[in-house]
Amino acid sequence: MQPVPSRFLIKLARKCLNHPKVPFTNGDALLDLSKDYIFTNLCHMDGQESFAEIRICWNSNGIGLQASVNGKKQATEGDHTRPRSSDGITLWIDTRDSRNSHRATRYCHQFHFLASGGGPDKEDPCFVQSKIHRALQDAPLCNSNEIMFRCKNEPGGYLIESFLPSQVLTGYDPDNCPRLGICIQVHDRELGNQIYDSTLDFPFSEDPSLWSQLILASNEDKEKNPKKKPVEISNDKTERSARKTKN
Fold it and tell me: What pTM value is reported for the model?
């Protein structure tokens, strides 16, 4: 085990593209995000196994999360009273990106999307919001009925889709605060943990200063900022030598 995760040595900021049409109200898919919305996974830098793919989008109405988990041989297990010990995903969002504080504010949220753990037999997918430990002030707890959430079992894993409406994200203001703090943990009793962008050795679940940054960007950014041609760096000695040979 290394004392400091490799990802701590760089300042991580990921671009999140706008998707104005989600959530879909008809059909089986809630988001159906393309590869353009993949949340880049750098867990291999710290020796973590990668068994999940996360995709994220945003619009003025809220934030969408899509997660696919693969490689499972066992059935999902869960308990809504112990969400981070269940098979699923935990998402932390700070709508004001206050990463200079080691303790959460009322703008910091903790959401759990579980593949199982709900219902009378604790076998149904479920959504849970919980308070952040040691927070200076708690974010309001939402009504689970406000959250659009779907979980589909697939061969060797499951697919989770959810849309968090703006009314459950205290302080959500894309126009004036387009940079959010974000942390994601995929936890699975069989496969282990896949954490963006920390390790279990650090208190990322309660310390916003350990979260990375999510930039709410427009899909037009690529067109507005085309890739620049690489700048050729010349060596004066080489140029003089070339001119002398030519002459």
Answer: 0.86
